[in-house]
Amino acid sequence: MDSQVLNQLFRQLFRHPACQSLRPQSSSALRRSDCVRLACRDHRQCRTFLTRRGQTKRRGTDDSMMWHKRDDYPKDITEELKTYPLVTAKDLRHQRERPRQVKMLTREFIDDSLYNPNYGYFSKHATIFTPGEPFEFNKMEDGREFNQLLGDRYTEFEDRLDEIKPDIARQLWHTPTELFRPYYGEAIARYLISNYKLTLYPYHDLIIYEMGAGNGTMMLNVLDFIRDTDHEVYQRTKFKIIEISPSLADLQMKNLRDSVNAAGHMGHVEIINRSIFDWDTYVHSPCFFLALEVFDNFAHDAIRYDTKTEAPQQGGVLIDADGEFREWYSTQLDPVASRFLRVRQAAARRPFPTPLGSKMLRGLRNSLPFQNGYTLPEYIPTRLMQFFDILHAYFPAHRLITSDFSTLPDAVPGLNAPVVQTRYKRRTVPVSTPFVHQGYFDIFFPTDFNVIEDVYRAITGKLTRVLSHEEFMERWAYIEDTETRSGENPLLTWYKNASVLTTV
Q: Function, please (predicted)?
């Protein structure tokens, strides 16, 4: 369903807090397939939904900006491009209403849509699924039974939420930390203990930073495991969460206090409610930095190329007086996007894909009549590059452990393009563009680990290793804990499209 149609469909709904005047649909009328898409094709995982206009700073106008005309929206926006101010997500941070009569770079629009504290997706509308008691995999017949049980628990979980506060627009998703609790966290803990003892013990404490900690389950699982298996290391362990969302930071502290181990863990935990991109504290001590399934929500820039000159153009969105979105492109790249293209080119140890294709394909395309003058957009991870800058500048002795999706099905058109979807009446609704009603759509990207490994190495000067999710778990998890009676192992067979990058 195209975003223009969705905007019309949801406009009345989104003008008011979700579901204040709507009755919840009876759970008996919902099929499980409507509540959750647990496994993507061939067990490839995606983030499934099982998931006043104020004063703005004026920027200089740019005559090189070109609006992107579509047949379903013939309005000429040339004049608006000249007069509307160019704003950033930071400029809009204190606005309570979604902006109008502004233009934004793609990465800034995505940041505002996901992280604005007043209407952003992660601030207001998203809930992480918690399955309750850990799954007893050894008692299950096979992976199919796991899918069935997971679907049942999803339905029960959301039914309980609806009893408290009905919400037909609730955004709900799962993470491997929650699905495979505590085994996934224990695998990470084994990795941390082993590498700490090999290189840092006994001269340094075990300091762990986690970004995007969700409910705080990883923190609890890691601390529980270290306490139970190596008391001496536990005494020297400090776990620090960096959390941008105030509501999630409160939830993490609540879950810590509610834990049976709260009395022991409290002295080992610090929750820092701030964005990593606002970080300004130098951390000289060696530390491990966990960034699990967070790169996919880092904002990207949209770059398209002139098929004849191969010159890049940077994309953005104009929001008009009616709140409608229009794409535009500029031949003048901002310093962040321009730097990423330079760093990627200089750092690349192997060929990387581009929308232009091979030289042979370019020549053939240019020789054919009626060809589009521009490529489809390429989405480049500029915010991720800035994250690497922060690690290098403020955490020089860090070791990164990150896991994320290397490919995603059902993405919008383009190279390295995101999946954009929302959830309505417990059904997943995909759309074909990232320029959608802010705060109600999850926008998440695949990670090209070949590219980002090279960029990370170039910026930080560190060496790395990339493994598939399955390879990492085979090394560090007790895989017999998650094996079913048939021999299937969901911890290994799920997340086939995820990879793990670690600093060595």
A: Arginine methyltransferase involved in the assembly or stability of mitochondrial NADH:ubiquinone oxidoreductase complex (complex I).
